[in-house]
Amino acid sequence: MIPYSFLDLANVTEGSTIPETFTKSAALAQSAESSGYTRYWFAEHHNMQSVASSATSVLIGYIAGKTNTIRVGSGGVMLPNHSPLVIAEHFGTLASLYPDRIDLGLGRAPGTDQATAQALNANFFENVHNFPKNIVLLQQYFSEENRRANVRAFPGEGLDIPLWILGSSTDSAYLSSSYGLPYAFASHFAPAQMAKAFEIYHSNFKPSKQLQSPYIMSCVNVIIADTLEEAQRLATSFYRMFLGIIRNERKLLQPPIDTMDDVWNVNEEAYVRQMTSCAFIGTKETVKREISLFIERYRLNEIMITSPIYDQEARLYSTRMFAEIMKELA
């Protein structure tokens, strides 16, 4: 059995509040922990009323405090938005509070629009160019050797905090392989270059102090229900979320509807389905068959799921069923 993990976007649902969203995330993380999930990650996004994970490190600390054993981390922190020293201190603090439980996944994108990226950090575009150098700087802050430097991270220095590179293109594959870091691909919204990126990563991997052999993880969408019809109905919330991205109509996560036929046009449907081609929607039996083939085809070392489901109980059920699938595949 390969490890299985969960990505939470802290989606705010229609009719709910941000505090209620965080309470739901805590309940979901506790359920994931009891179901054997390895990691529970949050993704940094900004200027999106439907996504409440902007202060990613704060939310990681909240969830780590509500759980006991599951690893909690970022999927990811968008490093160009921040000073590497600040991230070293934040995650050093988290790792000091919750030893051997904190992951630091790093991305190059802003997780928002360009105007907001500039508001977050006036040097954003320069930082994008310096992303590889800033990863090395972050590693330096965590190293014991940095004790002789003029600038040091407290907490952070000397702590073993696993770094991951996140990506949705082949650029990230070259970077993570050259640095010898584990690689997580955002297949849940940008699957087009996944196969090529994994091929590049495997072909160019160089062992490092952190990792001796290649390690890849794919994040996919999973919605499981008792019947195919119910799963497809639950998925309409997920499809409308992506449709909102295309139309630039950012709304809270909407309740499911019976059909999408009158909601999108032919071109919009094709585009949404291309963006969400790594989605496994159906009963436990159908998802088990499809996910098994997917894992084997791409030689995954780990799989991460996200489940943009409106109803909390349906979301909890889906994540429990996926855990059962992974245990049965062992």
UniProtKB/TrEMBL annotation:
Domain Luciferase-like: residue ranges: 16-291
One Pfam family recorded for the sequence: Bac_luciferase
Cited Gene3D superfamilies: Luciferase-like domain (3.20.20.30)
Originating organism: Paenimyroides ceti
Entry keywords, A to Z: Oxidoreductase
Database matches in NCBIfam families: oxido_grp_1
Full protein name: LLM class flavin-dependent oxidoreductase
GO molecular function: oxidoreductase activity
InterPro entries per UniProt: Bact_Lucif_Oxidored, CmoO-like, Luciferase-like_dom, Luciferase-like_sf
Lineage: Bacteria, Pseudomonadati, Bacteroidota, Flavobacteriia, Flavobacteriales
Family: To bacterial alkanal monooxygenase alpha and beta chains.
Enzyme Commission identifier(s): 1.-.-.-
